[in-house]
What we know:
This protein is α+β, with helices and mostly antiparallel strands. 46% of the residues lie in helices and 26% in strands. A hairpin with a 2-residue loop joins strand 1 and strand 2 (37-43). The chain is elongated, with a radius of gyration of 15 Å.
Amino acid sequence: MTKGQSEARISEAVSAFEMNYMGRGPKQIKTTICQDLIIIRLKGFLSQVERKLAESSQGVELLKQVRTSLFESACEYFEKQIKEVVDVNIVSLHSDVSTRTGEKVIVITLAENLENTFSK
Length: 120
């Protein structure tokens, strides 16, 4: 599998996870593999209600708490989905939501340099 194919498969897995586990998929998703990191950027994943909630500072805090809690409760399942694509051990997983832009970023740290596994 090429780097581009792996990035596309990761994007598909993350999109399916968001749809099936979180209830709504992103409008756009971009995955980049950079050495031992996988960086996933989701755009347009907040629902209309969540965007309305994010108009107040209390709503922003509540939204971030709920989204973080939901994601953390599904980390094991999420990691399994990614590992099926890359077949490399995952060291750590980080995620954050921007309520201002409606973006979510997920950064995955791997146990080895994934880029070295692709054909040149």
